[in-house]
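Researcher: For the record, we're logging two predictions in this thread. I'll number them. Prediction 1 follows.
Model: Prediction 1, sequence and structure:
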Amino acid sequence: MPQMANSALSENWLLKKLGDLHWKLLSDGIEQKSSEFKDEIGNRLYATSIRICYSLTNLKSFQENEKINFSGSIKRFGNSTYLSQINGESGNNFIKANLMTTFSVRSSDDNSKIEKSNPVEKVNYIQELNGIPDFLSNYRLLRKNLIDRWKLPEFTFIVTDEILFECDYVINPYYEINGVGLLYFAAYPIISDFCTGNFYIKKFGNLEWLKSLQTTQRDINYFANCNAEDKIIFELNNFKNADNSIKTTTTLYRKSDKTMLAKIFTVKQP
């Protein structure tokens, strides 16, 4: 059953559910359990999220004990990049998500040293795309800072490095580090929201209006991971309040070397 948080569908639970569905599609397609992903010399590989984009009915529209029916499909670009489309329906409520993962290997116990790799496959029933998908191409442009506008289904963001607000965030290893010692992919947007709340308190004195808004669109672009003992630098790059909604662009950095961990585009509405 779906989990609730703050009288609404938990976005953290939703991310975990979407990730679980994506990895099941991936595992079924190559007939391997996640623990069996290895490269040609036997190194353990991890299916690593590099982009998750979703739009949905306001989280508060989902009710406790409400059943959500999910369906999905997956395709691949080459042997490392996998892209899924996952839909959820529950009465008049909907969830539409696109997820993209690659395979990575850790050369040591240091999460700052993660490299892309390919798994050894006995079979692969997942359809291969003929050309590079826009979902991947735009991600690469964003990573190289070669794109100035970012589009979500109903909104366009200006990509900027302007810093409206900055703060440090201390990782909670008991909640935000996953079973293999990596910063959990579902933690990135929650960290972003927590720090955006700090900005809101500083600017407006409280969180009352912000608490009345819920995520309706989010696009998370992942670029690196982080050790549990490291800190995260949060930057708010854009904050636009219009039509009783807010649009934010935020960036997370690893404090030890200022490596960009993620860039997140979010829309919240009543």
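Researcher: Logged. Prediction 2.
Model: Prediction 2, sequence and structure:
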Amino acid sequence: MQIGEILKIMVVKKASDLHLKVASFPVFRIDGALIKQEDMQNFDLKDIESIFQQVTTPEQESPFSENGN
């Protein structure tokens, strides 16, 4: 999934924050409450890595790759 798609859904749902975790559905903060988005896909490691690469430059990615974080 592309980060742009997620952000569009967040705008429609009036979410302020996005929480992503491997093997979990995305979680949006809506009106102060954390709401699991069970109507969206459950994210695996490749999905999280893809989104991370979409929002970072290679220079920003490097420390994470080097440290394994």
